[in-house]
Amino acid sequence: MTFVPKPRVHHPLLDVNEIGLKRRDYEAAVSTLCAGCGHDSVSAAIIQACSELSLPPHRFAKLSGIGCSSKTPSYFLGNSHGFNSVHGRMPSVATGANLANRDLIYVGVSGDGDSASIGLGQFVHVIRRQLNMVYIVDNNGTYGLTKGQFSATNDRGSVSKKGVPNLYAPIDLVSMALQLGASFVARSFSGDKQQLVPLLKAAFLHKGFAFLDIISPCVMFNNHTGSTKSYDYVRDHLEEVVRSNYIAPRDEIEIHYEPGTSKKVQLHDGSQLNLTKLSESYDPSDRIGAMSYVQQALADGVVVTGLLYVEEDINECHDILQTIRQPLNQLTEDALCPGADKLKKINNMFR
Amino acid sequence: MTVFNEFTIRFANVNGSGSASANTMFAKALFRMGIPVSIRNIFPSNIQGLPTWFEVRATEREFFGRREHVDIMVAMNAETYEQDVASLASGGYLLYDSTRSIPSELQRDDLELIGVPIMRLIHPEFTDPKQRQLFKNIVYVGVLSALLNMEFDVLTNMVSAQYRGKDKLIQPNIKALNLGRQFAETYLSCPIDIQVRRTDAVGDRILIDGNQATALGCIYGGATICAWYPITPSTSVAESFERHASRLRIEPETELKKYVVIQAEDELAALGTVIGAGWNGARAFTATSGPGISLMNEFLGLAYFAEIPAVIFDVQRAGPSTGMPTRTQQSDLLSVAFASHGDTKHPMLFPSTPTECFDFAALAFDLAEEIQSPVVVMSDLELGMNELTTDELKWNDARTYRRGKVLNAEQLEGIEKFGRYLDKDGDGIGYRTLPGTHRDKGAFFTRGSSRDEFAVYTEDPGAYTRNMDRLLKKWETLRSLIPEPVFQNNDSNYGIMYYGTTATPMNEVLSILKDEGFEFDTLRIRSFPTGNEVLEFINCHDLVFLVEQNRDAQMKMLLVNDLNIPVEKIYSILYYGGMSISVDFIADRILRILNELKVEVHS
Fold first, then answer.
1. Which residues pair with A278 in a beta bridge?
2. Mean pLDDT on B40-61
3. Which of residues 424-443 of B touch A (CB under 8 A)?
């Protein structure tokens, strides 16, 4: 962990965003993770994305399971409620929270142990439900808090710090999310802020289940030669296939187009996502094509990153369930209790 | 001598043959003639083919409990003839299909045999094999209507009402009823010595099962989120909630729903969803049974320690493990009371009737939010799945939901420093805030790990101990919020304590014991923890029977642990065979113990 406290005093000229908040208003407690941990870069990217989008911090609800990754909601958005639940069960808690109040922004932070092993069932089913949330997996291929056991996302043959090779095939959460119908699927790398921040912005504004698998190396237990989740290995094998640029509705569309074909995606709040395909053969609106591309890349040992799939205008969980517009947690007796007269009629059904 | 409105009839059928609806129609017809009834559907864990029994007790004396022997047996399942004949009381009536010759198992000298050639009656009238099967059941209801002197138009009206809109089903059903009735009137001596006659003994009561009443209690109690995983015998709680909510909880302008039902991937996710909703300020519940409780342990511990309201309905069945999924027991008390690792305890409510299922369901949501902790309503298969004559459901429109200590934005403005786990009122219950309430005040981190008064993670022994002690203080506060026991005073030196469905046979047990010269005071426990009334009851009686439907005297263990009761005074009466505990069993065991102790008969 870092022992350097954050300065209490801010530079008076520090930028404020459109709702008058400074970046500091999106920060939280000092991280207790190891110095250099990829997870802290993810937290920093979340802070930057939320601040730049001018989203009110108190309208977020942060949820997590158990593990290093699941500690991180303490380290961003200090003015929002957080819920550090139990190992692998964040998706069900997020489901209940979201059903109770559809008006908040739900961000779940999980890890590869939390989502790909103990919580795999819950991970699968929250996607099936199309819960409107951002689901981040800080993926380091290892169990950090218990000191370096392999997780289920670790590649076969990848070597532990003690030199022992992993014997089992990896679970690829991106492939699963694509197959299960997630409407927003991305992979990124904690060391690539330029890619990560726009992806997070797009995810926060996406209506539906937005999944981000973020390779986030563990500096203590999985950053050595022979590991396929180390900073060096990921940098060497990374291939960005789709670059995303978030365009707010109020911004003039004056964006520098990257070479290659590009595609605009209209987000539900009127903003736009500009996707630049860096690979000619890749179409981020084609789920089956994306699945096949990702499978081929896995076979070739390439870590494809970027916004791999996005589909707007889908029916999220509340649409599917046909719940009322007003959050259920705001309903009072008047709306909920049918009353004594009605009960008399109900009694008659049982006579 | 003719007996009116007092008998038990058992139908022995094959599961999946459509018998349950015919048998229910028979029971409901008695109820509509004003006779109080209790129903027991004794069914296998199977969809088709295995034996099933359906028992109806008609009782103007209000003796709703199960008896070991029945007065009338409708023996429609050849596979169980022997057992069915054995279950008849001496002098009882055996109704059987005489299309084939009488099987030797049916021979018993002390029975009245009533042979009706049901298949032969049906054969020329119906050609469809499925109809032949279904109407067999309706024919014996027709026969019974004549034998017992039932009002026939009550039955025909029920058929008409049941198939309204599917009119072409009405005539064949009435034809089948008539086939049976006319055969009986022509060839049998009708009515027999057991008869029914119209009365107003039912009054304004209703005939409903506990699970449906529970579901209605959830609707009236303001539940908006039901998350569940199918498991017998609790399934109909969630399904009834959805059915009733789809009429009672629709926003008229939009036709959108003011409720949600989530069929989760397992019981863990079901309770997780409830906890997420409770954390976010909605009233949420799950319904399950013992195996589900085992899976929910982890989340129960979280909700206890993180202090989140949650309502759980445990419709108990016979354990351990898969046990007997379609048989009843009160055997989850210990596993619920202390569910999850570490020092935990959870309050339980024990309804005895469907009416109490309704009341306790609504109450559970108030309690859970007041104490910010899970509340478990302990029903069982006997109560949940069987219809019973019970007081009509009542609601006072002046009643408001008690939402507990939740701070709104305005209240937060007035607070210098918010501390989620501060004990401001000295009752062990802190003030909570809901996500999204205030721009920069009241946010905190909910966690299953140790924290201080301001919700900051800590491993400090002092802070941890203060927190655990505050949770104990909350437990004491709870004692004044839960339903007190029901005391019945007969100025006796001897007491009987019971809870849940063990109450059903108790009035008849007391009547039998009185005939033997013994009177008892009774105490019906309705919650765990209890108030001090239980200790006082035990202290002021020479001996106390505690009747339970489990092997290990689980309520006794809880009371010893919670109240330090004098165990030497307690005599456990324990039945755990999976049927509902019978009148005969309780009376017999109590008399046997009184005899062993050489307790003298009153006056």
1. none
2. 93
3. 433-440, 443
Q: Which of B469, B500, B523 is the last residue of a domain?
A: B469
What are the boundaries of each domain within chain A? Answer: 23-322
Instruction: Say if B278 falls within a structural domain.
Output: yes
Strands B225-228 and B51-59: unpaired
Indicate whether B481 belongs to any domain: no
SS3 label, residue A48: helix
Whether B245 and B187 map to the same domain: the answer is no
Q: Is the Cβ of A19 closer than 8 Å to some Cβ of chain B?
A: no
B356 and B381 share one domain? yes
Question: Residue B532 above 80 pLDDT?
Answer: yes
User: Within this chain, do residues B105 and B170 fall inside the same structural domain, yes or no?
Assistant: yes
B350 and B225 fall within a common domain: yes
What is the maximum span of chain B, computed from C-alpha positions, in angstroms? 89
The reply to whether B474 falls in a domain is no
Taking an 8 Å cut-off on Cβ atoms, the answer to whether B435 and A80 are in contact is: yes
Residue B60 identity: E
Quick check: A257 pLDDT over 50? no
User: What pLDDT score was predicted for residue A10?
Assistant: 61
A30/B contact by beta carbon, under 8 A:
no
Tokens coding B521: 């005071």
Judge if B217 and B182 occupy the same domain: no
Q: What is the pLDDT of residues B236-260, one digit of tens each?
A: 999 999 999 999 999 999 999 999 9
Q: Letter for the amino acid at B259?
A: Y
Range of the domain at B339: 208-390
Query: Beta strands A209-215 and A184-189: pairing type?
Result: parallel
Nearest CA in chain A to B224: A328
- Predicted confidence (pLDDT) at residue A191 exceeds the cutoff of 60: yes
Q: Does the beta carbon of B75 lie under 8 angstroms from any beta carbon of chain A?
A: no
* In a shared domain, residues B290 and B337: yes
User: Do the strands B387-390 and B3-4 form a parallel or antiparallel pair, or are they unpaired?
Assistant: unpaired
- Tell me the per-residue pLDDT of A148-172, one tens digit each, with 9 for 90 and over: 899 999 999 999 888 999 999 999 9
Q: Give yes or no for a cis peptide into B233 (omega within 30° of 0).
A: yes
Domain A23-322: assigned CATH number: 3.40.50.970
B220 contacts on A by Cβ (under 8 Å) = 337-338, 343
Give me the interface pTM, i.e. the ipTM. Answer: 0.96
Judged by CB atoms closer than 8 Å, whether chains meet at B268 and A58 is answered as no
In this structure, are residues B258 and A331 in contact, taking their beta carbons and an 8 Å threshold? Answer: yes
Q: Where are the alpha helices (DSSP H) in chain A?
A: 38-53, 68-71, 90-100, 112-113, 120-128, 173-180, 193-205, 231-237, 287-300, 317-321, 333-336, 340-349
Q: Say how many domains are in chain B.
A: 4
* Residue B536 parent element (H or E): helix B533-539
Chain A positions in Cβ-Cβ contact with residue B397 (cut-off 8 Å): 339-340
**DSSP output for B479-512:** HTTSPPPEEE----SEEEEEEGGGGTTHHHHHHH
Q: Which of B168, B167, B209 is nearest to B387 (CA)?
A: B209
pLDDT per residue over B153-211, tens digit each? Answer: 999 999 999 888 888 899 999 999 999 999 999 999 999 999 999 999 999 999 999 99
Q: How far apart are CA B497 and CA B121, in angstroms?
A: 52
B112 class by beta-carbon count within 10 Å (0-12 exposed, 13-18 middle, 19+ buried): middle
pLDDT digits over B106-152, tens only? 788 999 999 999 999 999 999 999 999 999 999 999 999 999 999 99
Which of B390, B419, B438 terminates a domain? The answer is: B390
Q: In sequence order, what are the residues at sequence separation of 6 or more whose Cβ sits closer than 8 angstroms to the Cβ of residue A90? A: A63, A64, A65, A70, A108, A110, A114, A119, A122
Average pLDDT over residues A204-224: 93
Could you tell me the two tokens for B272?
């997780």
Q: Which of A159, A138, A300 is nearest to A225 (CA)?
A: A159
Per-residue pLDDT reduced to its tens digit, A115-152: 999 999 999 999 999 999 999 999 999 998 898 899 99
